[in-house]
Design brief:
By secondary structure, the protein is α+β, with helices and mostly antiparallel strands. It has 2 domains: 371 residues, Rossmann fold (3-Layer(aba) Sandwich); 109 residues, Immunoglobulin-like (Sandwich), CATH 2.60.40. Helices cover 17% and strands 24% of the residues. The chain has 9 helices and 19 strands. The strands form 3 sheets. A 9-stranded mixed β-sheet has the order 1-2-4-3-5-6-7-8-9, sandwiched between helices. Strands 12, 13, 14, 15, 18 and 19 form a 6-stranded antiparallel β-sheet that branches. Strands 10-11-17-16 form a 4-stranded antiparallel β-sheet, with no helix packed on it. It is globular, with a radius of gyration of 24 Å.
Length: 495
């Protein structure tokens, strides 16, 4: 079994691999401690109303792409997320597959560009990064174009775009979001860079980064992560220290982003239990399914994935799109520092969090105890504001309402139930009525248009009859309430 650093570092592999090896001995008591499992609620949790993910592949060569969209049920639209893998992933889509899958299940359209097919194809690393940027941008444009041409797929909300980039893909992501206007890319609302690194072939300070990153909007919420035993622990090909590489090279270039909108964070290797949590290059890598117990392969998911990577990226997007859950992704808060607790009650070493570079591995930050439960565990609430019909040429009925929630509102779903004597029928997405076993427990929902203020157009045939309307909101963390907001109404009338 190879380590993540050995598979993913572009150059200087030996130096980083040696740096990550570290001490592995643990006491007999500690050896019994197990990693915490993925939580259900909150950022990074497993909660989702979607039963699966639909995968679409297109393009060819180094312009190929993969789309992951939430399914079962499929919403009409969802926020866009671009996930960029690192160097040496010639076959595409395995490394960072877990965060891509988690993000899609959280109710996002994920575009995963495959921007590389060989060691120097299409770009020879940092010697000339431009062909790889062109490849990634081409894949993003083509994937968006495909979705726009196929309205039966989940449509990406381009005004709610977020970006994730690992290693060399993090350098490409930084440059792409810096040039988003000239490249005609969706404006970056949130950016997560995981140990960005250009390989140190042309210098020890990430020279493949644009000379200035001032083009990244000042309003962007940005997190940059460096592993204590990752890039900053290694050396370049000339033997120079990379202590000022990775996020330490990115942060001096984003002065336009205020301290409240950015965090540079560091993970530390924690060998208290088994398997240990390694703060190597590739902390957020891993193709496995959520909550897959390690080891399952070369890049198993672990508590650093859901406890830090997924949690931070979920909360960062919620912060950027809904103004909620910022304390779980930005700032030196206990909610942000906390990763989880070993099975014997010992907290995992907390994140080190700063708003300025450089960030250093030493001193090792203390273990962070679990903070009090916060609003991230409170589902959104949907409120039916009222029923109103409008004069339209085909006499359609338009249902209106509002929704709100502690974690924002990503989607609103509505169920229409007709009572006929002691039986109930439910309006299905196809437009017909189907039998419902329990009148107060709808099984199928229609996606409304809008979020905090939403509307739903109903067939004109519903002008005759009385109905119960059930509404629920899916919040920015893909959580749904345990019940519904119900509003009984008489016959719909066109006014």
């Amino acid at each position: 079994m190879i380590g993540r650093a050995q598979a993913l570092v572009l150059f200087g592999v030996g130096a980083v691999a040696l740096a990550m090896s570290g001490p592995t001995g643990v006491s007999l008591a500690a050896a019994k401690a197990r990693q915490p499992r993925q939580p259900k609620a909150g950022p990074g949790g497993s909660a989702t109303p979607f039963g699966g993910v639909r995968v679409i592949r297109g393009g060819s060569g180094y312009d190929a792409w993969e789309i992951l969209e939430p399914a079962d049920p499929s919403p009409p639209s969802a926020p866009l997320v671009v996930v960029m893998h690192g160097y040496f992933e010639y076959s595409g889509y395995s490394v960072n597959g877990a965060i891509a899958m988690h993000t899609a299940l959280k109710g996002n359209v994920v575009i995963y560009p495959r921007w590389q097919t060989g060691v120097a194809t299409p770009c020879p690393g940092p010697i000339n990064i431009e062909p790889c940027i062109t490849s990634a941008v081409t894949a993003i444009h083509d994937a968006i174009g495909y979705l726009h041409a196929h309205p039966n797929h989940v449509q990406p909300r381009l005004d709610e775009a977020s970006y994730f980039g690992f290693s060399f893909g993090g350098i490409i992501t930084a440059d792409m979001t810096n040039r988003w206007k000239s490249l005609d890319l969706p404006k970056p609302r949130a950016v997560f860079l995981d140990d960005p690194h250009d390989g140190a072939l042309t210098g020890d300070n990430e020279p493949a980064l644009d000379a200035s990153l001032a083009g990244i909007p000042a309003t962007t919420k940005l997190v940059c992560h460096a592993g204590a035993d990752g890039v900053i622990a290694g050396t370049d090909t000339a033997g120079h220290s990379l202590a000022n590489a990775s996020c330490n090279a990115v942060f001096p270039k984003i002065a336009q982003i205020s301290a409240t909108n950015k965090s540079i964070v560091l993970t530390s290797t924690d060998s208290h239990g088994q398997p240990r949590l390694a703060a190597i290059h590739g902390v957020c890598a891993g193709p496995g399914a959520p909550d897959t117990p390690p080891p399952t392969g070369p890049y198993p998911v672990d508590a650093y994935d859901w406890g830090f990577c997924w949690r931070s990226f979920d909360a960062l997007r919620a912060c950027a799109l809904y103004g909620t859950d910022c304390k779980y992704a930005l700032g030196n808060t206990p909610q942000n520092r906390y990763i989880g607790t070993w099975s014997d009650g010992v907290p995992i070493i907390g994140l080190k969090i700063q708003t300025q570079a450089p960030i250093r591995a030493l001193p090792t930050p203390p273990r962070q105890a679990a903070p009090p439960a916060g609003t991230a565990e409170t589902p959104a609430a949907a409120k039916v504001e009222g029923l109103r019909a409008a004069h339209l040429h085909d006499q359609r009925i338009v249902l209106h309402g509002t929704a709100s929630g502690d974690n924002g509102v990503a989607f609103v779903q509505v169920a229409i139930v007709r009572r006929i004597g002691s039986t109930c029928m439910q309006l299905a997405p196809a437009g017909s009525f189907i039998a419902l076993r329990r009148c107060n427990d709808p099984t199928s929902f229609l996606f409304a248009t809008g979020t905090t203020h939403w509307s739903l157009t109903l067939p004109p045939s519903l002008r005759i009859g009385s109905y119960d309307v059930f509404a629920r909101a899916i919040d920015g963390l893909a959580q749904t309430p345990s019940g519904y907001k119900r509003s009984s109404t008489g016959p719909f009338k066109v006014t």
